[in-house]
Amino acid sequence: MKLGSTLSFVYRFCNYYLKATNRHGLQAPFAFQLNEYVFKLDRKYDLLKPIEKLRRKLKRIGVKLKS
Questions:
Q1: pLDDT of residue 61
Q2: What is the pTM of this model?
């Protein structure tokens, strides 16, 4: 697949995705799965929670962190 056709496909898919009213409006199986497994990840798998917990603990005991 050439770059131009790939970019065209991505552009058309983005337009299609934005025009779909909700997740059930995505008719193509690949589009529905892409939406479910990439864009609408279950937030219970939040990878930042342990990091934020450690950051709060370090802040509480007065450790200075570099930004």
A1: 93
A2: 0.33
> Who's near 9: CB < 8 A, 6+ residues apart?
1
Distance from chain centroid for Cα 30: 16
**CA dist., res. 67 & res. 57, Å (int):** 16
Integer-rounded Cα radius of gyration of the chain = 20
Owner of token pair 């937030």: 43
Virtual torsion, Cα 35, 40, 42, 45, nearest 10 deg: 100
Residue with tokens 């970019």: 7
Pair 39, 23: CB distance under 8 Å: no
